[in-house]
Each structure stands twice: as structure tokens, then as C-alpha cells.
Amino acid sequence: MSHPLKDRAAVVTGSTSGIGLAIATLYARAGAKVMLNGLGDAAAIEQTRAALEKAAGVEVRYHGANMMKPAEIADLVATAEAAFGSVDILVNNAGIQHVAPVEDFPADKWDAIIAINLSSAFHATKAALPGMKKRRFGRIVNIASAHGLVASPNKSAYIASKHGLIGFTKAVAVEVAEHGVRANAICPGFVHTPLVQKQIEDRAREAGISEERAAKEIILAPQPTKEFVTVEQIAAMALYLASDAAAQINGASFSIDGGWTAR
């Protein structure tokens, strides 16, 4: 089917750039009405929204809910339901990162990471589930991480949040299994984002090597393929999980990490 999500409506958090925008774009091209959410320059966001709406030929809206504020998250879902008539697909993608040893980790950074990476998924899911259960259809796709399955030094809050997100995914999956709702998680490895590019530059400078070597030998050391995951690859999995073909996939976590967690 060229439009497997025709007549569906989706909310994608953290979708003004990166993974979230790639998922929102593919959903719109697949026929779904989409509610964007995230940070950025207002004019740039409107340009992105309008361009996607025109290119995909579906309704695309934007809501600026702060993922640290439960009331705003609830309003994001309610606004999408009012605008589209339903929220059939919820992608909990918003996330932040901070790197520091546990003993030096700022308490406010810990609280923010847990709030945005984990608690926001709870608040959005709580808001979306009543409508999904009533209509007996729902797809919840949580963007976790390879760090939801394994650990690395100096990322305690991020790792805790992503492990928690996978656990939350399983809990929701078993609760709603008889209501036509499915919850699954995607666990990407390293994606070549601007944040990762800065890490590459810093590590290359520190080690006195080229950026290409720093990327392959340091950043991508855990990934056997020595290749970055692309946002399009993650979006393709998110599309599959949102489709009717995934009707019996529930409570699962899908690694897209070049073999990192296979070690």
C-alpha cells in the first residue's frame, strides 16, 4: 500500500528535527495527519510544517508543549484529538542528554532528563489511551536507545531513563493488549546528529587524529558495522510498527544499532 496510514492521525513528540522529524515526515507521506511538537525557531518550525503539509497532502499541525509540563502534554494530545478526530499513533521521541560522572552529575540535569525522556512518555500515553481504547486501535512507539539495553560510563540519567522507557513500554503493552492497542520500543545506536558531530570533533582534537578516525575508532567503537544509524532507518521501523502489519507485535524492543547489543 502506498498510503498505509491513510485516515490515521499521529502525535510525534520532539519532531521539529532529527529522528522525530524523520518519523513525522514518513508518517505524513504514508497518509497520516500529523501533530508536530518540539523546540526551535518559530518561523523555521512553521516553514517545516507548511512544507510537509504541502508535500504530503495531509493536515500537519504544530503544538509547542513543554515535555517537562504534564498539563501541556495533556493539552498536546487533546488538541490533536480535537483537530484530527483521533490520535491513533503516539510516538514518544523527545529526549535530552547530559554526560558526567555520577558524583558530579547536576541534580537539575538528572531531573530534566528523567522528566523529558521518561515521564513525558507516561503523561502522553496516559492522555492518549482512553481514545485509543474507545476506538479499539492504537499504536504507541517509544524511541528508547541501545542505552536502554546496555550501559556506558558517565550517562547515568540517560541510561536510567531509557531502561525505564523500555520497562514502561512492556507495562503498557500487557495492560492494553485486549483493547486493540500496541506498545513497542525502538532502540537506536549512534545517529550522526549535530550533538554527535561535536563529540567527534572534540575526540579527534583530544586524540590528535582525523574526524573520520575519531568517528570510526572512538564514537562507533561499540557498533560492529562501524556505520551510523540513519534517521530514515529508524523512521522506517516506526512506520512498520504503526501499520496494520504490526498488529501482533506488542511489548517488543527493536535494536537498530549495527550489532552493538549483540556483543
From TrEMBL:
<dbReference type="InterPro" id="IPR002347">
    <property type="entry name" value="SDR_fam"/>
</dbReference>
<comment type="similarity">
    <text>Belongs to the short-chain dehydrogenases/reductases (SDR) family.</text>
</comment>
<dbReference type="Pfam" id="PF00106">
    <property type="entry name" value="adh_short"/>
</dbReference>
<dbReference type="InterPro" id="IPR011294">
    <property type="entry name" value="3-OHbutyrate_DH"/>
</dbReference>
<protein>
    <submittedName>
        <fullName>D-beta-hydroxybutyrate dehydrogenase</fullName>
        <ecNumber>1.1.1.30</ecNumber>
    </submittedName>
</protein>
<dbReference type="GO" id="GO:0003858">
    <property type="term" value="F:3-hydroxybutyrate dehydrogenase activity"/>
</dbReference>
<dbReference type="InterPro" id="IPR050259">
    <property type="entry name" value="SDR"/>
</dbReference>
<keyword id="KW-0560">Oxidoreductase</keyword>
<dbReference type="InterPro" id="IPR036291">
    <property type="entry name" value="NAD(P)-bd_dom_sf"/>
</dbReference>
